[in-house]
Write a structure and sequence with these properties.
Length: 347
């Protein structure tokens, strides 16, 4: 135990030393810059690689932070090299009045996928592995698909102007054209056009007219799942969601179904996972990751599917929420600011 503790401290001390060296090494000649690059960034012997190999020494709950700090240190090395290279070439241009064509080219920074895209792909891939196909639907919806066909009563508060962005308000000829408030309307579009068995996963962007804060934004992303066939049960639902949670949050993930209500499912549940956090009393807390349930027979009948013969389950989850849990992000707004210092950490 004490041996483990001291190796943890060593890894953290090594990181701290590295940060100092990264900042303090002088970069006044191009040879110096080359040596600096090799010393820190060499894939085989570089000090960044060496430190990445030490992640297992760090306590599991600190690993993410440790890894992020290494990435930040690496970004500093790259930034200092770029800056020094720029200065050195300015100097040589200025002194000789010429460009040195023998200088190595400046590497273009490589882009990376946005963390939301990464999380979305991860989520859809899990379900693709279970035979779900990926489908999409329109972001501009009508009241029928977004609400009525999903069994929302006419006076449901979600239809209120406060929550829904209307493009055309409800009128004589239609119940309103709006920005979809969830991906569930795609369930209806798919069931209207197909016969069971249906097994789809639907990622997409949704919009809500909510006060913007660290935990909500006027747009976000969801992934919807739908499975309709003969003999689909709640046991099937639990099995697949548990498999999903294990893939995303680890083999020993603790998950629970909590009774809830959605107009389009009966019974309905919310799924929580146990989020370990030693700083909290009790060592963690339950965090909601999705809504789910058995498709309400009214919904099936509304799209012409025989609810005596077929049953189904559905679920829907917020991608931002899952990305925030996985990557330890505590403010949703940062996902929409396109700040390169943030995005770089996901390459
Ligand atoms: N559409 C719900 C929401 O936006 C989430 C949801 C709950 C989707 C239950 C489902 C479901 O498919 O069965 O919050």
């Amino acid at each position: 135990m004490s041996e483990q503790k001291s190796s943890v401290d060593n890894a953290i001390a090594a990181l701290n030393d590295l940060k100092v060296e990264i900042e303090e090494t002088a970069l006044s000649t191009s040879q110096g810059v080359d040596d600096y690059r090799i010393r820190f960034l060499s894939r085989k012997q570089g000090q960044i690689t060496a430190l990445l190999k030490r992640i297992p020494e760090v306590a599991p709950e600190d690993r993410k932070k440790f890894g992020q700090e290494i990435n930040a240190a690496k970004a500093r090395v790259v930034a200092r090299i770029e800056e020094a290279t720029g200065e050195l070439s300015d100097e040589s241009d200025a002194s000789s009045g010429q460009v040195d064509l023998t200088l190595p080219g400046r590497a273009m920074a490589q882009g990376s996928l946005h963390p939301i895209t990464q999380a979305q792909r991860l989520i859809t891939r899990v379900f693709e592995n279970y035979g779900f196909e990926v489908a999409e639907g329109p972001e501009i919806e009508d009241d029928w698909h977004n609400f009525s066909a999903l069994n929302f009563p006419p006076d449901h508060p979600a239809r209120d102007m406060q929550d829904t962005f209307f493009i055309e308000p409800p009128g004589e000829e239609h119940g309103g054209i709006l920005l979809r408030t969830h991906t569930s309307p795609v369930q209806i579009r798919i069931m209207e056009n197909r016969e069971p068995p249906i097994r789809v996963i639907v990622p997409g962007r949704v919009y809500r007219n909510e006060a913007i804060s660290y935990k909500s934004y006027c747009l976000f992303h969801q992934v919807e799942g739908l499975y309709v066939d003969e003999g689909v049960t709640m046991a099937d639902l639990k099995q697949i969601l548990h498999a999903f949670a294990r893939t995303l949050f680890g083999e020993d993930v603790k998950m629970r179904f909590r009774p809830s209500f959605f107009p389009f499912t009966e019974p309905s549940a919310e799924v929580d996972i146990w989020w370990k956090d030693d700083a909290l009393p009790g060592g963690g807390r339950w965090m909601e990751i999705m809504g789910t349930g058995m498709v309400d027979p009214n919904v099936l009948e509304g799209v012409g599917i025989d609810s005596e013969r077929y049953t189904g389950y559905a679920f829907g989850m917020g991608i931002e929420r899952i990305a925030m849990l996985r990557y330890g992000i505590d403010d949703i707004r940062i996902l929409y600011e396109n700040d390169n210092r943030f995005l770089k950490q996901f390459s």
